[in-house]
Amino acid sequence: MAINLETPKKLKPLVEQAHQVAENVFRPNSRKYDRAEHEYPKELDMLAAAIDGMSEGGGVSGAGAAGVRRSDNGSKAEDDGSTRNGSNMATCLSIMELCWGDVGLLLSMPRQGLGNSAIASVASEEQAERYKGKWAAMAITEPEAGSDSAAIRTTAKKDGDEYVLNGEKIYVTSGERADLVVVWASLDPSQGRAAIKSFVVGRDNPGLKLLRVEHKLGIRASDTANFALEDCRVPAEDLLGDPEINPKGGFAGAMQTFDNTRPLVAAMAVGLTRACLEETRRLLLEAGVDVDLEQPLATQPAAVSEYLAMEADYEAARLLTLEAAWMADNRKPNSLQASMAKAKAGRTCVDVALRCVRLAGAVGYTEHELLEKWARDAKILDIFEGTQQIQQLIVARQLLGKTSAELR
Ligand SMILES: Cc1cc2nc3c(=O)[nH]c(=O)nc-3n(C[C@H](O)[C@H](O)[C@H](O)COP(=O)(O)OP(=O)(O)OC[C@H]3O[C@@H](n4cnc5c(N)ncnc54)[C@H](O)[C@@H]3O)c2cc1C
Question: How many whole angstroms from 63 Cα to the centroid of ligand 1?
């Protein structure tokens, strides 16, 4: 089976559609919602309705559209031997284009939250039907549990036909605007990671109390909410997956959904990196500096040499991201590649955005252009869904054959 690096023919219309959205909806509203932090980007409502229609036929989708289904024994479904460009590749390519437009607006797209990805991955048919058309955020992080998500302290106690949740959740993307929040909680903290389960909680549940919405460095169009769960009663049928504590399965399954979502965050970084490079190339040209690929590097201005070095990093990040998505679509274990892609793309995006600001000088630093905004937006892509250091840790564990207890 070989990987083909051309954009698959059947996905070209999708990439073109996503580019149109990025150019005609996201870019014109980019600065507006960077300034109007916490204001809902109402332009997205019409877009979301159109996308709902398109999604039925595999159209443009946001961060949380794709899920990963596993067979009952916990392994990925049987490989039928054919090469596929499935939903992971389609979502990655679509996200790259949309984030060329605006990362904050991509994250704000209704009904495309990370919680939707979790639901698409593990909900039963009955649950999937019940949550259909809803916007779901994902709440894992707590004040004492960030990188180490197994350390969460939120508890879920069974009481008749309900679970009662207590704890605190912070930094929930789309937490204020979503209809549902997928909350990670432990059935029994003494039993460690196997006891962690996810619960679908309605935003209107009186036990789910919004504490505040964060002010942020970048992606200011996207709302980031903090919650307290105070005797939050959730019907038992809103637990996702197996309600039993299974020391062998549970948590590993939850962690595996990251193998699908990390390439998507890498794709966001790739899209933003390309935006920075294209804008810088335009500004260099305006200043009379042309990037000429035909001429030897030694004969070209220093700015061109720097530009080409950044472009090489961009290509490496893009290829790693496509590889990780392709492997997910082809049912190949991709934890290593997903973390490599996320680490490389996250770091490249932050690095390139700042170097582009420097190359463009004052024009890059001021609000005349979007470069200064992109330099602020970039940083989160190297933090959420696992920081740079955590991705490197995962890569090291995989390459050295160490467990998380042996290397941390
Ligand atoms: C804008 C925004 C949106 C977010 N959205 C969501 C969301 O929707 N849902 C959600 O659940 N969470 C969300 N998060 C939380 C995010 O996933 C966490 O911030 C991230 O996992 C890091 O956790 P932390 O902030 O607690 O940092 P910590 O885990 O405390 O880490 C602090 C620093 O130490 C480093 N570090 C930690 N452990 C190690 C180690 N073993 N070795 C080396 N270095 C290490 C980290 O890389 C980091 O640099 C969001 C965060 C932000 C800022």
Answer: 18
